[in-house]
Amino acid sequence: MHRKTYRPSRAALTAAAVLAATAASTAAHAQAKHWNAADGSWNVGANWSPLGVPGVGNQVFIGSTAIAKNAWVTLNANASIAELTITDGMTLDSANAQLLVAGATLISGYNSDGIFGYPSRLRVANGPALTDVGLGPVEITDEGRLSLEGGVVLVAGLLDIDTTGYLSGDGLVRLTSNAATAMLVDGGLGAGMPLLTLSQEGAGRIDLDGSVAGDDTLNITLSKIDNTDFARLTIIGDALVDAMDDDIWIGGGNELTMSLTDGWTMGAGAEIKFIASAADDPPARLKGNHATLRGTIFVGGSSTEGRIDAPVTLESTVVASIGPGDLLHTTNDATIEGGSFDIGLAGSVDFSGDTLVQGGTFTTVSDDLADGGVRFDGATVYDGTLTIDGIGQQNGDATVVGPTVINATRFDLDGLDGLTSWSIANGLEVNADSIDEGSPFFNGSIEIAGGFLGKLTVNMADPGTFWVMGGSMSLGGVAAIMTVRLDGNPILFSGPLDVTNRVRADCFLRFEHSSTVTFAGPSSRLRSTEYADIWDGATFSGGQFENAPAATLKLMQGASLGSTALLNEGDLRLGAGSGPGLGFASQVTMTPTSRFFVDIGGAAPGFQHDQLQASGSVALAGTLEIDLADLGDGIFEPALDATYTILTAPLGGRSGLFANQPVSFVPGKAYVWSVGYGSTRFNDTVTVKVADIIPCPADLNGDGLIDGADLAILLGSWGPCLGCNADFDLSGMVDGADLAVLLGAWGECL
């Protein structure tokens, strides 16, 4: 048997032309011809009543006589008739000839004889003509069937498949009607192997769900037992009459292709089922032009993959169920407007094409990808709220164009390979226990730029947990206007950070040994409004780091700001932990709101007391705070006139003064410091000297105040207590006399 290839041509339109001409010439009262045999050939006159082979003026009835039941009529010669009715379990087989029916065709009825069933049927075989059967309007009802066996049928009027009617097989149905509806499907469509095609060639469209919604209209589940071939259904046209509100079944290896130039819609009451009977079945596929899905999506069977190869929009009414070990997979453009997706154990939803996320709620079994999850494998654009009760993974590059919130138990921001690139031009808030599959590491790249709205906020379950920026980050501000780009949980930088224009971080920043911070130019700024610490080995180049009022910057032991200028409006500290340290900077500006904290625990600079060494100019202002440190042998108590160099700058590079005379407190004493501004042969220096030591015995905790805290210490020492600090009168007892001393000194030490 040969297979025709249909091409729109003059020859291909012959059947339609003949139908039109025949219909115009048929008499108003055409003569009826009744098949009056069991099995037999059309072109035998004795098989008909009245005798004679039907012609263009005849109404033909097959199944209207007593003998014509559950039998087979073979078209053994080309025939043109006026009308055709097939009933009573009879089959008309076009075989190797061409049948043209100018008027109406009715296929109706089904007979059951024990285990055998006999649908009334028109069977269209693959003959030599480009069109094997040409029909006017067609009605298929009461379990009647139109079956294609490789043939081509042209329908010039309405093809009406009634509630229990059925169209199936392999071949081509050409719909040439210009009425509003060319095909009405209330019954079923079943694709055969390898392909059933419905082609809208006139203005009339296909109404796939007919007038009865909710039934199983499309059934594409056939396959050879050895899986060497599968059924496929292709629908060609511009659009459907309306939204498809019936159910669609697509089996493993089967395909539904909706080649509708204006796209199509699955209604909210419809369901599409991707099913497979064996674990090695190929994917069940939905292909073609854009599909808008509003109803139920089911993927299930035996390791089933339901693959949507067409561009698709998943609207907010979608309810998807993905069974254990099953996969819902979009490979083309996808828009997720919303909907709910329930994913079984080891199941997944994968978006491999370009995807726009505007909503959606996904539920997985756990927050372990081995148990299933949702994956964004293609380029993804975010503009809405995504909720994942479980785990999601961003493998493709991501762009944030609108206000976006990702709520997840775990969301792997940098994907399976750690190479995901994020471009953030609007607010992105990630609320998740973790931002990686197994740890809070991000190794891809993040660019935050655009207008004022581009901002990344990461909120993990523990607000004190660092997430690690191990890849590269680029922060771009809006010209000379300070722009907030980072917020949420603390960030540990271990890779490169590039800063352009003026940007602000409203979260804890830590710059580890391997991090590099590069400013695009002298006017570029990075402003920290919370807490920042910089570790030895971190590299800074150009621009300016700003420590905002009420913020804290700590230069860890040996840390350097390189060629980056420092503007300190908040608290500046040196050293690791609570011990002293040596810090390096280039140009330093301290404003009136700033505080410079210096720990002194001995005479060695950088090891026993803090020292800041500047390679450029230093402008001083604000206050200087001196803390006496405990380096392991108790709080250090320097001698009167002991002097320490706490800051150096190039000769002539220092300007300004600290606004205060520092005072340090230890239990029982107050140290009053004088600040010296001098120079050596090579450097300007700032020194502090113990100018006075004032006893303050009632200050038991060394905070400069006699208050409830000191009272608690005294009461805790009450009774015999030889050598206690609270034994002010050295009586060996902490008693009422000592209490009187403390109460008499209540308030500030000085």
Which labels suit this protein?
750 residues, mainly beta, 16-stranded parallel beta barrel, 13-stranded parallel β-sheet, 3 helices, 79 strands, rod-shaped
Textual characterization of the structure:
By secondary structure, the protein is mostly beta strands. Among the domains are: 570-695, no CATH class; 705-748, no CATH class. The chain contains 3 helices and 79 strands. The strands form 8 sheets. A 16-stranded parallel β-barrel has the order 20-22-24-27-30-33-36-39-42-40-37-34-31-28-25-23. A 13-stranded parallel sheet has the order 26-29-32-35-38-41-43-45-48-51-54-57-60, with no helix packed on it. The radius of gyration is 43 Å and the shape is rod-shaped.
What is this structure, in a nutshell?
By secondary structure, the protein is mainly beta.
Averaged pLDDT: 93
The total of beta strands comes to: 79
Strand order of the largest sheet: 20-22-24-27-30-33-36-39-42-40-37-34-31-28-25-23
Largest sheet data: 16 strands, parallel, barrel
Distance between the termini: 111 Å
Spans with pLDDT under 50 lasting ≥5 residues? 5-15, 21-28
Strand content: over 45%
Counting DSSP H or I runs of 4 or more residues, the number of helices is: 3
The secondary structure category is mainly beta
